[in-house]
């Protein structure tokens, strides 16, 4: 099992095929100058030996690096979402023979200038994130997962989940289950997806003549800030449903509500705007929006590949694609079981 | 914000500095042949313009790609662990100016032969994983996160957590809290870390004259298989503590135990061998082993860099480093609070 052998070289292919290195190279690259019989023999031998041409050299020649850089936010409370989305990105990249590299968080200075990539994917850009500004300034083709939150920024493309629709669906579900005073707990960090959920929550409240109750949480100290916000909502007394924007926050709401003697799924309904495996494992399971992160990641990479291939001129209007989402109902909102 | 400009070229640096391209190149690479005054002027201008030499070309010259490939297992029930470990790998890679790429899962055939990297990190290799075999056969320097489970396989280095120590610590803690018949729920997938936990569990049982109770779960269908195993353990009647090997599995144990009318932290103690944010958010919080995944990832990358720099000959004995771990006590094992 532990056989270690260096990569096969062009020289080995040439020697085995008993042709010159130049002839082997011509045969492999499909250039004229060798007979068809030689070409077939060289291809056959290269395949048998497992020869792969030096990718770095090939990429340099085609003036493409073959690399897509991916930037994930640093303080992520929905780690499983990003892991799944990253797997989706890598799966889709492979179809185009692209390699995915991850942009590091640590340095806020020089190294970004060296980013050696054909294009860039930024997942969930946050408004306060200086690295996002600096990445955009590199001039590479960029696709964002969810929109850029700053109207002065622009990307070549964006993949967006319809958070407005799922937010209304959850609030309507609360309502029809008898919970008429829903509150939301949203990150202080400003991202397009959380801002659109807040907006649709406020719209919904206006339509239903309910005063909006918005409390905050911070990605840095998710448990403590969520528990504090939950206490504030529950001490008020009227709150009968809480939509927590992240999966981790929803779990912290549930823990705090139990300490307050509230019964989740009965006298307090809870939902999360992002699903994660944990929300189905806990008891009661927590209703949440399945954002299909693996599929979402694939769509991001696919859109970037299309943009790279199209060589379209940068315009102010990004190409926009919508990703499918679905509310998964569980016992935390009164569903039977699961 | 949305300024897009192409990267600065050597030509632009040379023109701005009013020297030939060759002179600019010599100055930037520190070669003799230009005056110190010219060299200083060129460096100054290159810095002002934000010039970065073409990394692909430079790497090719130094016969290094500057790329480290990372392989993560496909069916991961502990997604936040791998996400954190990956962030740690990327952070540490940056210190050595290395780029991290992720090996895709989808294709089980040709593309691995093309892997263009100086070295390879494999996290939690599983015994049945054909991709691991094929990656090892590439002949690249490899560091594994946790050991290779197959004694016929070998890597240049490995970073290992002391699962034996933490397993004994948890079982002793169960015991001193009055739970004398602990069971474990372990993945059917064979990995070195889970195998070492099973071994130390069996050792502990022998020392305490207890019959081992080992049930299984599958990463593919974690919730259902864990719930099934939990039911089997609870119907038996004597089981008073369960160590679940993954964080997701521990949550599923807790949900199933509640349905069975057991009170977690009181008449049933629960712990997980891998911590995750969710385990601290739920009520009661679940005791778990903090494997310090971000630090673990950094250690993996650091060890690989040392191996690459040392140019040591491949030997059968991998360089081994131990990563620090700690049991985090929460209410699921009777701890006061949190």
From TrEMBL, chains A, B:
Residues 8-62 form the HTH lacI-type domain. GO terms for molecular function: DNA-binding transcription factor activity; transcription cis-regulatory region binding. Signal peptide: none annotated. It holds the Pfam family LacI. The keyword Repeat does not apply. InterPro entries: HTH_LacI, LacI/GalR-like_sensor, Lambda_DNA-bd_dom_sf, Peripla_BP_I. Keywords: DNA-binding, Transcription, Transcription regulation. Transmembrane segments: none annotated. PANTHER family: LACI-RELATED TRANSCRIPTIONAL REPRESSOR, LACTOSE OPERON REPRESSOR. This is LacI family transcriptional regulator. The lineage of its organism: Bacteria, Bacillati, Actinomycetota, Actinomycetes, Micrococcales.
């Amino acid at each position: 099992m532990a056989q270690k052998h260096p990569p096969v070289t062009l020289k080995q292919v040439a020697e085995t095929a008993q042709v010159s290195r130049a002839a082997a190279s011509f045969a492999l690259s499909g250039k004229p100058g060798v007979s068809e019989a030689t070409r077939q023999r060289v291809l056959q031998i290269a395949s048998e030996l497992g020869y792969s041409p030096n990718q770095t050299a090939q990429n340099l020649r085609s003036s493409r690096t073959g690399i897509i850089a991916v930037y994930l936010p640093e303080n992520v409370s929905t780690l499983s979402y990003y892991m799944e989305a990253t797997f989706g990105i890598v799966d889709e990249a492979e179809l185009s023979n692209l390699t995915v590299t991850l942009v590091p968080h640590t340095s806020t200075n020089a190294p970004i200038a060296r980013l050696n990539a054909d294009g860039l994917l930024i997942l969930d850009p946050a408004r306060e994130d200086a690295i996002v500004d600096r990445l955009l300034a590199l001039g590479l083709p960029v696709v964002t997962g969810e929109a850029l939150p700053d109207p002065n920024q622009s990307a070549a493309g964006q993949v967006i989940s319809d958070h407005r629709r799922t937010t209304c669906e959850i609030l309507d579900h609360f309502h029809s289950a008898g919970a008429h005073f829903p509150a939301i707990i949203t990150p202080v960090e400003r991202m397009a997806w959380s801002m659109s959920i807040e907006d649709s929550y406020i719209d919904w409240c206006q339509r239903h003549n309910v005063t909006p109750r918005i409390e905050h949480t911070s990605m840095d100290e998710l448990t403590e800030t969520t528990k504090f916000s939950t206490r504030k909502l529950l001490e008020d007394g009227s709150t009968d449903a809480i939509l927590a924007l992240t999966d981790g926050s929803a779990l912290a709401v549930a823990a705090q509500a139990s300490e307050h003697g509230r019964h989740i799924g009965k006298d307090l309904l809870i939902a999360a705007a992002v699903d994660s495996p944990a929300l189905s494992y806990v008891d009661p399971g927590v209703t949440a929006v399945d954002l299909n992160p693996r599929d979402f990641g694939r769509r991001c990479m696919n859109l970037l590949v299309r943009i790279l291939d199209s060589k379209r001129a940068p315009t102010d209007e990004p190409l926009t694609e919508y990703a499918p989402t679905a509310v998964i109902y569980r016992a935390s909102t009164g569903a039977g079981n699961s």
